[in-house]
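hiii, so i know i said id send this last week but things got crazy w the move. better late than never?? heres the sequnce for the chain we talked about at the cafe, plus the structure i predicted for it. fair warning i was half asleep when i ran it
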Amino acid sequence: MNHIDLRPLDDDDLDAVFEMMRDREAIAMAAFTAEDPDDRAAFDAWIERQRGMADVLSFVVTENGGFAGTAASFTIDGDREVTYWIARHAWGRGVATAALRHLISREPIRPLFARVAAHNAASIAVLTKVGFTEVSRNVDFAPGVGREIEEIVFALPPALDGA
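okay and structure toks below
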């Protein structure tokens, strides 16, 4: 069994994150991505903004100590959300599910929200495995596919015991 963990994002991770987020197959699955994934200056500016925000928690996902992706939590319009991006070499082995479990264990706010392109069956499966349920759908422009698509909003409610 592979050991999956989260660690803080470091400057030394930025090249790997940039390259991961340029993977065309992953971009098509995620859909709601940067307008130009090859624009390093825009990526660097985006990362710098994220790292400067007190409410953004950014992590590197590791598999057996090596880079396997990213995971983060942040606030938009008063709602706490999570996101993750797993490198292609780590797909299909439960890395995303384990990483999301670690992330939500570090994030005390509930409800917790996540958004996913309706065609991204793998990410939908990950969210439902850890207890997220669908709460709404909307259609919006997705730069990763260059057209409007359906996005599903999921929520992780507070635990019944109040935790």
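btw The chain has a mean pLDDT of 95. thought thatd interest u
miss u guys!!
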